[in-house]
Amino acid sequence: MTASLAELARYLPHLVLRTEPGDLEHYGRDWTRRWTPAPLAIALPGSIDEVQGIVRWANAHRVAIVPSGGRTGLSGGAVAAHGELVVSFDRMNKVLGFDAVDRTLTVQPGIALQAVHEAARGHGLMYPVDFGARGSCQIGGNIATNAGGIRVIRYGNTRQWIAGLKVVTGGGELLELNRGLVKNATGYDLRHLFVGSEGTLGLVVEATLALTEPPPPCNVMLFALPAMDALMRVFGECRRRLKLEAFEFFTDRALHHVVAHGAQNPFETASPYYVVTEFHENETEALAVFEHCLESGLVTDGVIAQSDAQAAALWKLREGITESLAKYRPYKNDISVRIAVVPDFLDAMQVLLTREYPDFDVVWFGHIGDGNLHINVVKPAHVSDADFIAQCETVTKRMAAILHAHGGSISAEHGIGLVKKPYLASARSEAEIALMRGMKRVFDPHGIMNPGKLFDP
Ligand code: 2HG
Ligand code: ZN
């Protein structure tokens, strides 16, 4: 143990500190698996006081802090590869309170998203942000990245559900932001600055989440589509006639991987594109939409779930994609454009990717109803890791230029972290980035909070 760590242990005698190699490895990385973890130690605070104590100590010793949730991030935001102190919220994972009148749930940052869902359900309500990593990701990380997921189309991103936040800034102050108020016209809403700040301004130590009514029982339908240009037309039809909870797409390559990983393909013949959609209406209205799309040649096949088990099996085809690809450690892109621009943008992307990756396995899927596309590129066996990353980065640079031309964003919901840092300027102006740097200096005067993420120090 270094002298400064020994001092931290003396200063906060109840703080759990870990330095075993297995822990350094485990807590030093996220799902990107590109960087070798090398943190100084792992601190597992049990209270807000301990978090403040850690930040004070880190400022005094100029030790960098990497906040750590479930580490399911895909942009390297939770990577600790340079002797940082990882602050994990694994021990701060409780529900602190529920308010039936305000319909809010107050939680510690280390609670898993799924546990938030269960707690809300236990009160007859719903926390609507949802995505595949729900069992492992933590609410603090969701807030730090303004996580999106499969129900943004109806409920919006995490930001919309944050009624209040307690944060410890990089300077060590404890701020209580918005305190659950519905209306609060008192100047800058600092709460929203912390949502999506990727741990660069401070640490979220408590969150008050807004809850809502659960939807009526929903139906889940899977469509097979013959061509990419049918996608947005099917979306238009579904959005016009159905109250959508989700509208997600994936390609035949995605289906191939997810089926190889154990999911069931309900179709006998292959199609290039698929859509899974969930909506409030009954089967009759859904079948009318399906028949209209079939007659117009927009879809070639479809299945409507007849039970919860079948609905889950259809969802597995979409939600299982990331896990089915994990063993290849694919290069990931998470991009967005305005919904109106999606068709033009898809055309431009198809030209780029067909030209740049003629023989690569390129897997497209995502939240197409939000204009958010995930593009995973699998490394061919004959290409080295370094050449693969170099080629993907060249293509991403071109993609960033196309995005810029279409007014889009290089990161829709995964954050910038380390992976997308070189492309930040394609989505944010020089003036914006300068202001962001200035804000970091205000909240984190010694630059100890997640340095090197989002932009270079
Ligand atoms: C999803 O929508 C996640 O499933 C992960 O955002 C996307 O693995 C990915 O690229
Ligand atoms: Zn996603």
Detailed description of the structure:
This protein has 4 domains: about 5-90, Uridine Diphospho-n-acetylenolpyruvylglucosamine Reductase, domain 2 (2-Layer Sandwich), CATH 3.30.43; about 95-210, 2-Layer Sandwich (Uridine Diphospho-n-acetylenolpyruvylglucosamine Reductase, domain 3), CATH 3.30.465; about 220-320, 2-Layer Sandwich (Alpha-Beta Plaits), CATH 3.30.70; about 330-365 and about 375-430, 2-Layer Sandwich (Alpha-Beta Plaits), CATH 3.30.70.2740. With about 450 residues, the chain is α+β, with helices and mostly antiparallel strands. Helices cover about 35% and strands about 20% of the residues. It has helices spanning about 5-10, 20-25, 50-60, 115-120, 140-145, 150-155, 190-195, 230-240, 250-260, 285-295, 310-320, 320-325, 340-355, 385-405, 430-445, and strands at about 15-20, 40-45, 65-70, 85-90, 95-100, 105, 160-170, 175, 200-210, 220-225, 245-250, 275-280, 300-305, 330-335, 360-365, 370-380. (2R)-2-hydroxypentanedioic acid binds next to strand 14 and strand 16. The site of (2R)-2-hydroxypentanedioic acid has 9 residues, from strand 14 and strand 16.
Could you list some keywords that capture this structure?
single chain, 457 residues, alpha+beta, Uridine Diphospho-n-acetylenolpyruvylglucosamine Reductase, domain 2, Uridine Diphospho-n-acetylenolpyruvylglucosamine Reductase, domain 3, Alpha-Beta Plaits, 4 domains, seven-stranded antiparallel sheet, five-stranded antiparallel sheet, 15 helices, 16 strands, binds (2R)-2-hydroxypentanedioic acid, binds zinc ion
